[in-house]
């Protein structure tokens, strides 16, 4: 097979969960199936080398397939005119997979799209305006064009069917995975104090790692942490690590209003090489998100042997199983109780650490890639 992966989530700006999902699945698949030909496809009007450099860490077994035109101009024009994608990328590929919801018109061969979740339908107030507009106008025709729709969890499958029941027959669940080389119990423990110092963290800490935005439920987490601090004199710090998303001002303001500026630490985007020591240094990982199509950060924490507090909503129970403290994301009291359990019970932390490590071994990128590969094989029959 000749299979093309749309590289936009990897080369445009900072890598988010969608980009890491694509990298995890595509790199594993190319390594596991050298009998096939794999390519990262992207538009480039000039300076091809800049995009190729961004792809270089991930392209050991994957070639490049370049459409020499402005990607922005094409994406904008194709929203109103059915300009065929194959005009720029030819008719070589058997399958082209778009990992970020939208597939353009006129793709040669079979078309696969990944629809990670339906948050723009279920919680539209938590979605950035331009993202919602893109999905409102572009997702329905993309799903119609797609031969197969891939999604990350059974929860997301049921969500897609709720809003787009006509496409039920072509939805396939391909769970995300975790890189066990990158996320594992820290084998360089001396890096933990170095990273903590660089981020201004002293002593024990609870860690949240992800985008600073509304649907991550951070205001309720901060309120719950405040309840916890009132009960525990020497409460660990709360570290909220990650880049700013949108509508984040009220999150920062909540910390100020509660006079927690000496207890809650915001970091910026965490470099890849610092994630493992930051994760492994945490007393526990906290992720009370309202809505996730999969939720990779709790799985990454479990792979590091770090006990996890996660919400009982959306896909998160699928990811964490019985290997995390579960909480109601709408109850600040319940979140606070979860923090207390993890802080006060060292035996519980040790048990969750052991069970989380075992569960992470069942959710690898190799496993994810093989499930996705079986979808491609199904398409080519």
Can you characterise this structure?
This protein is α/β, with parallel strands linked by helices and 381 residues long. The protein folds into 2 domains: 192 residues, Rossmann fold (3-Layer(aba) Sandwich); 170 residues, Glycogen Phosphorylase B (Rossmann fold). The strands form 2 sheets. The protein has a 7-stranded parallel β-sheet, with helices on both faces. Strand 11, helix 13 and strand 12 form a beta-alpha-beta unit. The radius of gyration is 21 Å and the shape is globular. The model has no long low-confidence stretch (mean pLDDT 95).
Uncertain segments: none
Q: Please name the CATH architecture of the largest domain.
A: 3-Layer(aba) Sandwich
Number of strands: 13
- What would you give as the CATH superfamily of the largest domain? Glycogen Phosphorylase B
Strand fraction? 5-15%
Strand order of the largest sheet: 3-2-1-4-5-6-7
Anisotropy-based shape: globular
Order of helices and strands: EHHEHEHHEEHHEHEHEHEHEHEHEHEHHH
Structural category is alpha/beta
Helical residues, percent: 40-55%
CATH class placement of the largest domain:
Alpha Beta
What keywords describe this structure?
alpha/beta; Rossmann fold; 6-stranded parallel sheet; 7-stranded parallel sheet; 381 residues; 2 domains
Spell out the blueprint of helices and strands.
Layout (H helix, E strand, L loop, with lengths): L1 E5 L1 H4 L5 H16 L4 E7 L4 H8 L7 E5 L3 H8 L7 H4 L5 E4 L11 E5 L4 H4 L6 H17 L2 E4 L2 H10 L7 E3 L17 H8 L6 E5 L8 H14 L5 E5 L7 H9 L6 E3 L5 H9 L3 E4 L8 H8 L4 E4 L4 H5 L4 E3 L4 H13 L1 H15 L4 H16 L1
Parallel strand pairs: 1-2, 1-4, 2-3, 4-5, 5-6, 6-7, 8-9, 8-11, 9-10, 11-12, 12-13
Helix pairs in contact: 2-17, 9-12, 10-11, 10-15, 13-16
């Amino acid at each position: 097979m000749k299979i093309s992966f749309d590289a936009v989530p990897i080369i445009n700006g900072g890598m988010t969960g969608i980009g890491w999902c694509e990298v995890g699945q595509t790199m594993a698949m190319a390594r596991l199936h050298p009998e096939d030909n794999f390519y990262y496809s992207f538009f480039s009007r000039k300076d091809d080398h800049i995009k190729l450099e961004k792809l270089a860490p991930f392209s050991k077994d994957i070639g490049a397939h370049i459409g020499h035109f402005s990607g922005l101009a094409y994406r904008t024009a194709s929203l109103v005119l059915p300009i065929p994608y194959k005009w720029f990328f030819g008719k070589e590929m058997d399958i082209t997979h778009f990992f970020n919801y939208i597939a353009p018109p006129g793709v040669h061969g079979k078309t696969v799209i990944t629809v990670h979740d339906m948050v723009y339908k279920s919680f539209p107030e938590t979605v950035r305006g331009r993202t919602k507009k893109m999905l409102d106008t572009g997702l329905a025709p993309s799903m119609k064009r797609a031969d197969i729709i891939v999604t990350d969890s059974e929860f997301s499958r049921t969500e897609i069917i709720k809003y787009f029941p006509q496409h039920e027959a072509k939805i396939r669940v391909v769970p995300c995975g975790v890189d066990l080389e990158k996320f594992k119990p820290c084998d360089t423990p001396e890096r933990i104090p170095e990273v903590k110092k660089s981020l201004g963290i002293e002593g024990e800490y609870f860690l949240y790692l992800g985008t600073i935005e509304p649907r991550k439920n951070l205001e309720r987490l901060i309120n719950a942490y405040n309840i916890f601090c009132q009960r525990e004199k020497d409460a660990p710090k709360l570290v909220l690590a990650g880049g700013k998303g949108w509508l984040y001002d009220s999150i920062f303001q909540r910390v100020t209003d509660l006079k927690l500026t000496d207890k809650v630490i915001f970091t910026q985007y965490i470099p890849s090489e610092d994630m493992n020591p930051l994760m492994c240094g945490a007393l526990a990982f906290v992720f009370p998100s309202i809505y996730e199509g999969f939720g990779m950060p709790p799985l990454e924490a479990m792979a590091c042997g770090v006990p996890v507090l996660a919400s009982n909503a959306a896909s998160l129970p699928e990811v964490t199983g019985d290997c995390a403290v579960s909480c109601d994301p709408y109850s600040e009291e319940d979140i606070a109780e979860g923090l207390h359990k993890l802080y006060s019970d060292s035996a519980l932390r040790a048990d969750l650490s052991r069970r989380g490590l075992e569960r992470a071994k069942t959710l690898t990128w190799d496993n994810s890639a093989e499930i996705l590969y079986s979808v491609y094989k199904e398409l080519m029959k």
